[in-house]
Amino acid sequence: MINREKLKIKFEEEMKMFDSLHPASKKMFDKAKESLLQGVPLNWMVRWMGEFPIFVEKAEGAHFTDVDGIEYVDFCLGDTGSLVGHGPKAAKDAILNQFEKGASFMLPTEDAIWVGAELKRRFKMKFWQFSTSATDANRFALRLARRVTGRSKVLVFNWCYHGTVDESIASLNPDGSVSPRKGNIGFPVDPSITTKVVEWNDPKALEEALKDEDVAAVLCEPVMTNVGVVLPDPGFHDILRKLTKKHGTVLIIDETHTMCASIGGFTYLDDLEPDVVTLGKFVASGIPAGAYGMSEEFGKRAVIEIESEFGVAKGIGGTLAANALTMAAIRATLGEILTEEFYVRNMALAEKFNKGVQSVIDEFELPWSTTQLGCRTEYVFSKTPTRTGTEAIEAKDNDLDWYLHLACLNRGVIMTPFHNMALMTTATTQEDVDKHTHVLREVVKSIVD
Ligand code: PMP
């Protein structure tokens, strides 16, 4: 049982320890505030535990060192942007080599052909296009879906996350209506106009929302990953596919995170048959990149629509998208890093990580549960795995969450902020995993009765 009084006291102690451990980061943060909004180049970076973010000096594999000279085991890996580890050699060589030969031409290189064919093999999607982020891949997939169907609405699941895609930052209210998600700043139009939201694992609500045949696309992950891991009920994907087909709605499966589960995400693992698959994050080892693959039928319809607009799809693309550097990085990442062996090794390690967490849960009889998703693991403050976004949000415990992240960080272990997620990469060792278990046990012990 967590003792809230102890939790409060310990949290204050950890905050003081954080300050005393990081004078150089604090100095940099103060300097950064002179020119960067909130003292960071991206506003998300202030959402780490502690009064200021730690500044990174250098990283290698599954570890990084901050500007105060402290080394960390990195289980966050850039929230999957570096799932392949920091600076994997194959990608480094390919990136340096291509940079010497030229980075950006607005013309294709041979690598693009290799990458297209490899993605086609993995995801069974016939035609591929590229973007500079997963967010953009989702945005472009939605544009094409709207154009092809002639419909305007998008359907997403409550508490989903697909990047900063305007239509998807919407919440389901208890009365079934839709509102802008709290913190959705400056939305272009009220998402209730653009978006329908239903709970994950609710086929009835899904059918109800699709039956008016005004929904261009359903955008979803195969497994929800942004509010902890929320698995689909058995058969839910079959129903989703059946209903979207029946009502002429495009099904977009966002595999940005779930490609941690296999070489072709759940589309490959579970033989899903979406119309479009989207990807990003680690697919180019940290060089900004996104990709979206289309079924033959959807691709052909999309091409006709694009060509009817003088051959150029306005609002789709970007000059740096699919450039030579990106394609070289994706080729090396898929060809030499994200191999079957990568998944076999790191899934076994993720299993061990979860066993370690489970041993702490058992020892202190905590009402928590763990879930593994390929190389990704997560524990949530709920005795049983959650089934919907709402259940997952209700299981959140911010005080506990902040304390655990902060106390782990102070002991050299980095967990992903906002949730208790850890990623395993080839450079992660058994000792790293054991260190996490040891630290978690120590920090939990100090706040329980
Ligand atoms: N899709 C999913 C499922 C995500 O979780 C995210 C980001 N966490 C994105 C897309 C967007 O990725 P990015 O911010 O790199 O564009």
UniProtKB/TrEMBL annotation:
Q: Which InterPro entries match?
A: Aminotrans_3, PyrdxlP-dep_Trfase, PyrdxlP-dep_Trfase_major, PyrdxlP-dep_Trfase_small
Alphabetically list the UniProt keywords.
Aminotransferase, Pyridoxal phosphate, Transferase
Q: Which Gene3D superfamilies match?
A: Aspartate Aminotransferase, domain 1, Type I PLP-dependent aspartate aminotransferase-like (Major domain)
Query: Molecular function (GO) terms listed?
Result: pyridoxal phosphate binding; transaminase activity
Question: What cofactors does the UniProt entry give for this protein?
Answer: pyridoxal 5'-phosphate
Give the protein family.
Belongs to the class-III pyridoxal-phosphate-dependent aminotransferase family.
The name this protein carries in UniProt is: Aminotransferase class III-fold pyridoxal phosphate-dependent enzyme
